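User: Teach me something about this protein's shape.
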Amino acid sequence: MTHSLRIPDLTIPARPAPARPAGVGPGDAGDPAVNDVDVIRVAGGARLTGTVHVVGAKNSALKLMAAALLAPGRSVITNVPRITDIAIMGEVLRRLGCEVRFDPDDPVDPMVARGGTARSRSVTIDVPGRPGAEADYDLVRRLRASICVLGPLLARRGYVRVAHPGGDAIGSRGLDMHVSGLTRMGADISGEHGFVIAAAPDGLHGADIVLDFPSVGATENLVMAAVLARGATVIDNAAREPEIVDICSMLIRMGARIEGEGTSTLHIEGVPELRPVRHATVGDRIVAGTWAFAAAMTRGDVTVTGIDPGYLEVALDKLVCAGGLVETSGDAFRVRMDARPRAVDVVTLPYPGFATDLLPMAIGLAAVSDGASLITENIFDGRFMFANEMMRLGADIKTDGHHAVVRGRERLSGAPVRATDIRAGAGLIIGGLCAEGVTEVSHVHHVDRGYPDLVADLRALGVAVERGSVPDGPALDI
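Assistant: First, the predicted structure itself:
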């Protein structure tokens, strides 16, 4: 890969609206007009250099907002990323009767110093004494994480009705473990007309729960339900992610009695009530990991701040094995790659293993490495949908069930591709940096759900990048 960057014209031209047949108005049957979609175009050949700051973890902030439901009064959560999913969760809480306000965080974000918009905010949540008990489909379908209101609302109200969740199209992610655990705690749970309905008119009680798999979502819901249940709850095979530790930390500050956070066994002693608190969201290890792999793929030199490098120990070790130089400090790390990466094998596993959310970046690294890599996905069965789009960029990928063999190439080839989920979108954009010519990634609203102002960060690291909108397909004469 050459490190000299020849910047092509990335201007996204305006396209005229397609003509409609006589007598057909906007939205009428037979209207051939096509909705616009957001796209990001990047010029290949960039070598990322500089410093990027990571704000709070989306996967933690969403659950912290739900945890605020456990205590009437005003809770404040800081270092919350400015992304679409947070806005959706804010509206979920408003419809449950909460007052929700977003304010700028203290000006610690380097983006503010560059004259841009802060990527993190604080959210103030005023929870009523009797919150609502129904989460509507029109919001839950857009945000799978909104199912995490199930546990706290059941604990507070003794009844909750939550629509079956939506979210990313990356495979089956059922609610069986949520339902099984809450049932053991005394809840009566049923499904009706697309809703999960849970009732515990006499309140929840402690129970011994063994999860079939260390599910993050199930662990979060069960912990939030258990903190107000009568008696003791033990959750075995619990998830150990930093985001679980973060939510337990907030709950303990609210007055919950929890032991074992960060281990596979959680002990919770229920208390009669909790109090509102102020809490700072832990840094986003997935966004940080994205920048780490981007530095390695582009043979760059990037320092990432705002994150404990220990949360990425396995991922950073893979980059060292690939030939990178990794330096760590208390809340930052640096990744430098001076030559073409060596091929490494990757297996996704629950934390502290290699994170499934970084699988697209691992495939991207393998696609430009010297040699063949075996990538194994053990968490979500739909992650390899991303591989089809990477192959449009010229990646040599062969998939077989949960495995993919990737044979690296010196460089990829720019092409139009489509983001199918948050991490796939980020992976395709980073892949485009290693391609000849221009890569256009469409449906980047997915990326907006996890990466605050990705375009500005790319520019700051030396990338020629543009964002705009284009029609989603050609106009049809119907």
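Now, about its shape. DSSP finds 15 helices and 26 strands in the chain. The two ends are 46 Å apart (CA to CA). If you'd like, I can walk through any region in more detail.
User: That's plenty for now, thanks!
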